[in-house]
Structure formats: C-alpha cells, structure tokens
Amino acid sequence: MKTITKIATLALCGCLSMGALAGCGGKAEEVRVWGGAEDQTLLKKIVEEFKAANPDVKENIKVEIQDSWDAQSVVAKDPEKAADVVLIPHDQVGIMAKAGLLSEIRDGTAATFATDIKSSNDPATVQQATYGGKLYGFPLTMDTYIMYYTTDIFNDEKQDLSAFLSSVDAMLAADMPNIPGSKETATAFGFRMEDGFYFNMGFFAVGCTLFGENGDDVDACNWNNENGLKFMQYAAENFRQSGGKFKSDDAKNLATAVLNNRLGACISGGWEMQDTFKNAKNIKYRTLPSIMIDGEEKPLIAFSNSKQYIVNNMSTHKGTAMRLAAYITSEQNQLRYAEERGYYPSNKNAQQNAAVKDDPFFKVIRAQLDLSVPVPVIPEISRYWEAAKALGSSVYNGSLEGTPEKLQDALDKFVDDLKSTL
Fold it and tell me: Is the pTM of this model over 0.85?
C-alpha cells in the first residue's frame, strides 16, 4: 500500500477536479473530520501527524465529535453542513450511496486510493465498502459480538467449564447464586432480544438467511420456513422475561450486570472490552455458545460489521478529504486503533502483526468473525431493524407464547413487512 507520505511528495498543483485544494485562491479553507467522542484523542494525534507529513495541504483540518451510528441521518439532514470526512458503520454505505451522499473512491493521477483499499483490506470489508459496483468507503475496523462471562459465577479457573459455557441450555439450567449483598438470585444469560443486531443469531444458527445467501436479494428472507419456526419455538420457551434465567436489556446494561455479578454471561460487541470491562479482573470471553435444536447443538452465528471513513459528496475539498481518509485508515494507524482503542483492524497486514495476531482477545474476535454474517449493505436493510425489534419484543414479553400456528403467523408477518415497502 502506498503511504500517504509518498503520496504527499507528488505535487498536487492547481485545483483538482475532485475538489478544490487550499492554495488555489489564497486564504486557507477548512476540512472537517468526524469521529466518536471516545476516539478524539487518537484521532487528533493522527490529524496532526497528517499535517506534518503533508506540508502541501493548506486547508485547516478540524476534528469534531459525531457518533458513527447516526452519522447517516445527520449527513442526510444537511449534507452541505456535514463534515468532509465521516466515520460510519458499513450498513449505512448503501443508504447513503443511493441518496448521492457519498463520493466514489477511485484511483487518481497521484494516488491509487481504490487499488490500495482493495489490495490491503480484508475482502469482507471491501465488499462492505462497495455498493452498485462502486467503492465508497475506506475500511478502518472489523467488529462482531461475543460472549462475556464473570468468573465469580462461572469459575473456569476451578473447573473445566468449556462444555458448559458453550451451551445456552446448560447455562439456563444452572443453579445460580445470589447477587452479592442480596437475597435475589442472579440471572444466567442475556442478550438484547429487541435488537435485530442480536436476534438474528438463532435464525442464522438454523440456516436461515436475510436478503439471500449474499445479503443482496431484497425479495429473499426465509425466516418463516420450517427451521425458522423451530428457532422461534426455542426462543419462545427459553428467551422470555417470565423464565427467570434469561435477561434482555441494552447491551451496556447487560455488560454492567455481568461485571457486578448480577448476570452470569451476556452477549455484546468487541467494544465492551474498552468500555465496561476495561481492566476488569473477573471478566473472560469466548465465541458464541450453541442452542439445542432437534437434539443437535447449533452454534449461534453473529452479525459482523465494519467501520468505514467516507468522503461527503458535497465536500468542496475532496482531494484533501480523500488523502486524509486514506491516512487515518492506513496500516500503521489501524494498528494504533487496535492497541489504543481495542478495535480489530481491517488491514490484512495489521491483522498479521503480533500485537493483533497474538492477542487473546483479538483471537476470539477473529474466530467469531469467521463464524459471522456481515450486515447487508443494501439500503433495504433499513427496513429490517424495526421489524426485527417488534418480533424480538413479542417473544420476550410473552405475547407469542402459544401454538406453533401463532409463531408461524408472526414469522410470516415479519417477512411480509420486509417486502411490503418495496
């Protein structure tokens, strides 16, 4: 991959067709970059290093706070007021590209942006950066979710619990201790049932697909087939509020409950290690457990995603914006995000670096990524979240307890809801 330093040595004279650079008219202009609040310290360091390595860039570069999860809606409200360089989750690529909000990433006369992205990054993240055959994202990280557990409840240092922790059914059947300082019994296991980012796990475990095998067929969702019904029956029996052993809540709340020994194990994202569980001594982690369907253990299969930097199509400084996005997402900086922020890199060389490859936590993330399904890129994914929320909520609150016919009707409605707005 060509380094930005090398790119900087190639003179970018005049105003490039991909965006006006400062220096074309005297007064310096401004290029803005968005990143999450927790990443500001590192991002500001990287921007300062970019300035030092690229003295020909005359624009002022300003780092601002903007959460990635709602960046798409913020940009869509007023693209001209949005930042030039924006961090987004990859499932927003299709939505934003279709709306004309993203600048296509191509090779130029002085830099091979597109070629470098395709050759240097994990193929999954390149696919996630692509919509309609065009490349729109500079991949930065890969992520998925795993299971965290507290050794104060599930103590694998005193006994071999590998088989136990690999089974949801075993955890739900376990005798749980009291919550410290309370007569209330701790809950065994939890994840956010009302969030389609997690509720998909069981359907994928039994072989169902969302928007087809490749996630790009808007007419294809088979969650209402025979296998989907089997998981719904399992979920209605085991993942309900009245059961006492299972808990659904916001992922951070669940993680806090595990940390405080109110919950034995929960499913949450890799980010939790840099947040709730940072420096925690009683927390361990592993790949997702399995559920028992028809007498067979079916490993839960996660959704996976990536974070990508994109260039606002309304930017008047696309040349500098492209260079900045490429610099932030370079191999060396992805390693810094891994070491300082705990993010698994998308860059293939960074993945093979000992700091990543030999790290126990990253090993678990990599193993789960290999057992995951990427969130679809197509804009129609936006229809999935509310429909999945409604389906998961009805299971957890018990309104779907009853006959298989009732569960089948709910699944049929879910599939119809995904297609009704086509």
Answer: yes
